[in-house]
Design a protein that fits this description.
By secondary structure, the protein is an alpha+beta fold. It is 15% helix and 15% strand. It contains 1 helix and 3 strands; from the N terminus they run αβββ. The chain has one helix spanning 18-30, and strands spanning 49-50, 57-62, 65-69. Strands 1-2-3 form a 3-stranded antiparallel beta sheet, with no helix packed on it. The protein starts with 17 loop residues before the first helix and ends in a 20-residue tail after the last strand.
């Protein structure tokens, strides 16, 4: 989910509160989704990827830019769980 940010002709509408994005993320996790992100709120932590098994941070982002990727050979470096995805180009 991505935070609404008022621009152009919707300047009279408020931003989506970060607390609402956090709640939506928690609901997604409780529903069984492994990778749920808070978008458009860089630096809040909700844009990072965590291991679904041990909760170790796997990918650190600032906004949509990756600053660190800790995944090695498609595995979590802490618990060795397999992480779905394409990790090399």
């Amino acid at each position: 989910m991505t935070q609404f940010y008022p621009v152009y002709k919707l300047l009279d509408k408020p931003r989506t509160p970060v607390s609402k994005l956090r709640l939506a993320r928690e609901i997604g996790h409780k529903a069984g989704l492994e990778y749920v992100y808070e978008g458009n709120v860089p630096g809040e932590g909700g844009e990072n990827t965590y291991c679904p098994s041990c909760k170790e941070m796997l990918i650190e982002r600032f906004g949509y830019s990756i600053s660190k990727n800790f995944i090695k050979n498609s595995r979590c470096p802490k618990c060795d769980s397999f992480i779905e995805g394409v990790w090399s180009s």
